[in-house]
Amino acid sequence: MSKHFWGSLLVAALLGGPAVAADMPMPVKALPLPVAVYTWTGCYIGGSGGGLWAHKRWTDADNLSTTLGSVRFNHTAGGGMVGGQLGCDYQVGRWVFGIEGSYHWADSNATSNDLIFTNVSGTTNVSGFGTVTGRVGYTIVDQALIYVRGGVAFERDRYSTNNLTTGVQLTSASENRTGGLVGVGFEYLFLKNLSAFVEYDYADMGSRDVNFSFLTRPGSTTYSIRERKDIVKVGINYHFNLAQPVVAKY
User: What are the strands, taking DSSP E only, across 17-41?
Assistant: First the structure.
């Protein structure tokens, strides 16, 4: 073959190569998947339940009594509670600051014998329990929050004494009591706007003089009642537009 043939073939290859390459499909670069970013900033409402244990100690505070200053009853009113909470949070970095109000209906009861007059019993019933607290939390991951809380607790109490021999109720009393509360908890956003939590609280409700009215005769008597309370609760919260997924920038 002549050298003109080989020269023509080389020129055709050089000119045709780029055109063929241009017609070939280019590899498609994989795009990153959207990344969900969560924030705790916003307000929420929820329901919760659990148990409370009110440790009550009654001391005779009636100046007319021959047992003034003596402990008469000592028991723990335990039972269940159910209610709800409403609050708002604000997140700064990994820190979360918030305020919450809650109320729970309770049925916590206890009865014990008089430590001096053994034919008499005393009964405590805690029928309601509420709190107004602030909280500070830290997000160990975006969806998981550990926190501490503190504030004011209040409750509704009823009391009575009974004659164990005759079964007759001797006295009755009721009060609204306030005190201080501290607690710790863990909360997790498991869906876009839903979280679940578990919490332990300790409330010191102080000492109060409570006036008991006699039911079988005129008059009254007074007990100084000291209370400390343990509370364990679990619940679920609905968050308003808190955990919205954000598409990552490409």
Answer: none
Distance CA 162, CA 109 (A): 15
CB contact burial 23-50 (16+ within 10 A = b; e otherwise): eeeeeeeeeeeeeeebbbebbbebebeb
15 domain-assigned:
no
Does some domain include residue 21? no
| Residue 215: closest CA among 168, 153, 183, 166 | 168
| CATH code of the domain covering residue 138 | 2.40.160.20
pLDDT greater than 50 at residue 208: yes
Strand partners, 63: none
pTM confidence score: 0.80
Is residue 26, in this structure, part of any structural domain at all? no
- Which domain range does residue 142 map to? 41-239
Helical (H) or strand (E) element with 79:
strand 71-92
In a domain? residue 108: yes
Residues 116-141 pLDDT 10s: 998 999 999 999 999 999 999 999 99
Residue 163 · residue 157 · CB < 8 Å: no
Domains held by the chain: number:
1
Over residues 49-78, the pLDDT tens digits come to 999 999 999 999 986 677 888 999 999 999
- The CA distance from 218 to 214, in Å, is 6
Distance between CA 53 and CA 155 in Å, rounded? 13
